[in-house]
Amino acid sequence: MIRILKCGEVENKEIFARTPSKINVEKTVSEIIENVKENGDKALFEYCEKFDGARLSSLLVSKDEIDKALNEVDEKFISVLKKAAANIRKFHEKQVRTSFIINDENGIVTGQKIIPVDRAGLYVPGGTAAYPSTVLMDAIPAKIAGVKEVVMVTPPNAEGKVNPVILAAAHIAGIDKIFKVGGAQAIAALAYGTNSIPKADKIVGPGNAYVAEAKKQVFGLVSIDMIAGPSEILIVADDTVNPKYAAADLLSQAEHDKMASAVLVTTSFEVAKKVRDEIEIQLPNLERAEIARVSIDDNGKIIVADNINEAIEIANEIAPEHLELCVDNPFDYLDSIRHAGSVFMGKNCPEALGDYLAGPNHTLPTSGTAKFSSPLSVDDFVKKMQYTYYTADALKRCAYDVAYFAEKEGLTAHAKSAVVRLEE
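Given the sequence above, the corresponding structure tokens read:
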């Protein structure tokens, strides 16, 4: 059963405690990466057989497989995928940055160019659930950014097939190539490249502890979006919230993973008790009840605050991945929210809207990293290149200032390079 904690009656470390990592996968992942680096496709085929039970003749998903998947997925779901894709495009198109140039009349030109990465690698989880939403959320911003090639890796089933809904989403999102490989080995393949899988410049997408560790280990060789931890939801609620709705929203994240975190911060003891009771009513009826039960019992909590401002400060300190602001007039409090991956405003905005249909990205910072990082966006798939141009006269006007600055840093060769042109 979920715990109820009262601010001021328990230590802060209980209020702000996060889900502890229960497994250390660093050595295992390091060995997998080294194997893929040395043996390429051979290692990938072996890992597919070992971890997925699939004996593959090719890692690449063929056009025939994609066409077959489109025929297998019902038309209603295809329609919903297209609706979601349109909303995601509409939102992310507003994020596009433009290059700029500053043209000084005195012979100085400076500027910045926005350049998409050449190739993005998308990781889409398999395992206990299929996530076509992740396909859309990761691929569409990359396409809007102008990435030349977007490739996707995702684990196959024991028959060597990729879930049809994943392939349908990939087709709608415009992904260029899809490969049947998952886990740390897929991240290694994107980082180093193999005969089948091209090396990526950027790797994005959520995954389990092995995937997260692999992204951590290859960072620097390639860019990554973030090191994603277990899924999180935090609900800030006053005494007007419907306990049934709050319980349902908490369970929507608890069913993700046994290490997921579901937290309610409320100003009412009565609400706290009603939500706790409602969780116990709803949880046994979930298809993923076993997972949700562990998440709720181990990591869930209800925090009772003295007032809404204290509740919001608790939320800011926790900096959750998803924050629901279940209060009247939620926009009155939006400016007070400083740290959250994505905020869901009011009592009619369940976090699931953000997962699937609303448009803002659902690949979000976790584990408190919302204090300094952002949701996945078009910015993740571009880089900035700056440039400078000076005429001879423009350099002449400032060369001695440059030299003086350089000498103050003890870098006399820098100073010389600025004034040598004036000596002629």
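The longest helix spans residues 75-92. Try to locate this feature in the token string yourself.
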